[in-house]
Design goal:
This protein is α/β, with parallel strands linked by helices. The chain has helices at 10-22, 33-42, 59-67, 84-92, 105-119, 151-162, 170-177, 188-200; strands at 2-6, 26-30, 47-50, 75-79, 97-100, 125-128, 131-134, 139-142, 145-147, 168-169, 209-212, 216-219. A hairpin with a 2-residue loop joins strand 8 (139-142) and strand 9 (145-147).
Length: 238
């Protein structure tokens, strides 16, 4: 899951990014409305956390532009403007939730998770063959075995399972799971794929993580090889 934090106060932005990254999310930050809109137009975000008092424009203007898109991410307003009129206006203009500063991070995290569940209610559990990933409880089970994954391993596996059967490049995986750009040199994705394979594939006869030559990786049930027709028995073999 990739989130965008739109907050001009660096101390709060850093606090939010660290906390959300610790919860297993990839996080980008924008300090202005213009930067936020540029990010939203260039990347697919699962959620936007939006401050209203930005240095270059009102956050509601950012919200309006997000809502004008054909498909836009859920938006959680996080603002010191906590009056009833402010909250009603924000929700009426398209915000999915409104949290007033100062706030408790545990409440913010609970609201983030609730919005992400609301946006994808049918995908709380993902399954490929006998591999099941519970997005809410962050549990992975293969067959009858529970598999422990590190946060980044879980993030890669979730991204792959949400895109079952779709080849994903290393660039796509890094940009979705890590808060960084892919520079074409790092082998970080290959390292994590090896870790994932050792945990969810190596001990099982059916291998689910497939290498797509020249592109990257995907997760899918492998096709069974076509059975060769039986050769006719010649008279000499009888």
């Amino acid at each position: 899951m990739r989130l965008l934090v739109v907050e001009d106060e660096k101390r709060i932005a850093d606090f939010l990014c660290r906390g959300l990254q610790g919860a297993g999310y990839a996080v980008d930050a924008a300090a202005t409305g213009a930067a936020a809109l540029e990010n939203i137009h260039s990347a697919d975000y699962d959620l936007v956390i939006l401050d209203l008092m930005l240095p270059d424009m009102d956050g509601l203007k950012v919200l309006e532009k997000v809502r004008n898109r054909k498909v836009g991410p859920p938006v959680l307003i996080l603002s010191a403007r906590g009056g009833l009129d402010d909250r009603v206006k924000g929700l009426e203009q398209g915000a999915d939730d409104y949290l007033v500063k100062p706030f408790a991070f545990v409440e913010l995290l609970a609201r983030v998770r609730a919005l992400l569940r609301r946006g994808q209610p049918a995908l709380e559990k993902l399954q490929v063959a006998d591999l099941t990933l519970d997005c809410i409880r962050r549990k992975v089970i293969r067959g009858a075995e529970t598999i422990d994954l590190a946060p980044k391993e879980f993030g890669i596996l979730e991204y792959m399972m949400r895109n079952r059967g779709r080849p994903l490049s290393r660039t796509m995986i890094v940009e979705h799971v890590w808060d960084m750009d892919y520079d074409g040199l790092t082998n970080i994705v290959d390292v994590y794929i090896r870790h994932l394979r050792s945990k969810i594939d190596d001990r099982f006869p059916q291998k689910l993580i497939q290498t797509v030559r020249g592109i990257g990786y995907m997760i899918e049930v492998p096709e069974k090889p076509a059975e060769r027709p039986a050769e006719p028995v010649s008279e000499r073999q009888v």
